[in-house]
């Protein structure tokens, strides 16, 4: 009986050892698979980060070019008005142009030849903002007026 007992114990030990070995190799495969997956995710993250940085730099450059174009516009051939007639605002539109005002001051044209023009400078694929579109609509519909506000500092 002791031989059978020894054989039974040997079989049990063999099963346990085999299970442990197979378990470790399975766990090793699973671990390796997850490590590969993590490495792929890290690579994708690095690529996405590089693309985001590139987009950010390109957007920043486009904004800077747009700001420069706004400031230099009166000096460029596309700007059809006298720079002296243009007043830079920046927001919500870039310029208010009092077209003909310089000529009027010099007595070269009549007052009724002065025209007020609101201008926004755009470069690349930039479009008018919703606010700028609303201002353009107000002008088209004639919702424009001139006001004088008097402030009297002598009144108590």
Task: Describe the structure in your own words.
The protein has helices spanning 2-72, 101-105, 130-140, and strands at residues 86-88, 95-99, 115-119. With 156 residues, it is mainly α. A 3-stranded antiparallel β-sheet has the order 1-2-3, with no helix packed on it. The protein starts with a helix and ends in a 16-residue tail after the last helix. The mean pLDDT is 86.
Provide the gyration radius in Å: 38 Å
End-to-end separation: 123 Å
Task: Flag low-confidence runs.
Answer: none
Number of helices: 3
Strand order of the largest sheet: 1-2-3
Q: Mean pLDDT, rounded to whole units? A: 86
Percent of residues in helices: 55-70%
Supply the helix-strand structural class: mainly alpha
The description of the largest β-sheet is:
3 strands, antiparallel
Helices and strands, in N-to-C order? HEEHEH
Estimated share of beta-strand residues: 5-15%
């Amino acid at each position: 009986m002791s031989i059978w007992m020894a054989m039974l114990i040997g079989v049990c030990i063999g099963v346990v050892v085999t299970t442990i070995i197979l378990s470790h190799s399975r766990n090793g495969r699973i671990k390796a698979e997850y490590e590969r997956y993590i490495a792929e995710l890290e690579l994708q993250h690095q690529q996405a980060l590089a693309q985001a940085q590139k987009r950010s730099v390109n957007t920043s450059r486009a904004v800077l070019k747009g700001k420069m174009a706004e400031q230099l516009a009166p000096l460029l051939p596309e700007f059809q008005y006298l720079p002296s007639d243009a007043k830079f605002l920046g927001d919500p539109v870039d310029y208010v142009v009092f077209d003909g005002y310089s000529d009027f001051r010099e007595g070269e044209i009549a007052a009724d030849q002065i025209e007020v023009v609101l201008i926004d400078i755009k470069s690349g694929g930039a479009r008018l903002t919703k606010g700028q579109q609303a201002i353009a609509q107000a002008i088209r519909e004639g919702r424009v007026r001139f006001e004088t506000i008097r402030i009297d500092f002598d009144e108590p």
